[in-house]
Amino acid sequence: MRQIIFRLLSFRNFVRGLDKRKAWEAGRTTFAIIGAAGYAGYLSAMHIVMATVSLCIVTGTWYGVYRMMERKQ
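RE: above sequence
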């Protein structure tokens, strides 16, 4: 139990000794990196979805053209 209390107190002293401005900047940088990664993931997912939708539209259109040409012959 003493060891746990000692570790908690030493951690508290460590946190109190941190520079608040550096901690703020580190938080902002971390948030920016996570935000950029999230946006990149969203962008790639939407690219895949839109490519799939576009492929379906083009395939359906060409299938319709093929069927119409088949009926004319």
